[in-house]
Amino acid sequence: MSPAPCTDASTPRYDCGIGAVALILLVGMGLAGIYLLNESGGFAPGVFESTFYLRYDAPSVANLFFANFGYENGNQLHFIGNFQAYVLLSMLLLMVYLAIGPLLHVPGRFSRCLLFWSLAAMMTVGAFLVTGFSLWVHAGDVTYGVGFSGINRELMGFFIFTLLVGAEYLIGRRRWFRRHPLLFTWCALIAGMAVFLAWVDYSIRMDVADIGGVNAAHLGGSVLGFILPSVVFLVLAMRLRRKGNGGENPDGAGAEGGPSGK
Q: What sections of the chain are H helices per DSSP?
């Protein structure tokens, strides 16, 4: 099953794969740029802390977003650890969606758009929700939160979500499961919930082992790594189904009955 070529040259379609690569590079350059600018003394005294630290006793809307992209001033290991994790997770996601997916005949345009819009949702809406949840847990505390680890947890959850959905798609193409769609749907739902709960439990245990407690940003990111891609998946699937009902067959996905091939 290969992507269907665009037949109308006057209306070229936006390639979500290019968008995903560009977004990953943009975020990576932003993280590195903030670090290098601060380490070289590019920020005026106090500006870095007031911009990239989320103070729980005096938060601002801007801090809710930018706190995800900073690090503890003077703690280079904090930045290096988060940046390395981001590069590794981004490469894994790109490999799965842009290399392994086509080899397994997963509908190309659908999967690339799932990657792009899920990344966009996690980097924007997810960034606010991660720090917002952390603020709610620590409201009024005379301390602060900073760092990219919450979004990295989103990416980790998204990677596990991707493996789960990919397995569901490949199994769903088999003839036996097409004869028992309701049973397969319930099995897939139960399996998905079990994997989700296992991932959240593992995330909590990692925090307890590392810092002796639960990091609210880590926990929020782990949950959002499943929720946001699920919402994106459902929206894309509904749009694909409407297009299929309208006579279109984008990406050849209609031949398998939609993105899940059931």
A: 16-39, 47-52, 61-66, 76-95, 101-103, 108-123, 125-137, 149-172, 175-179, 181-211, 216-245
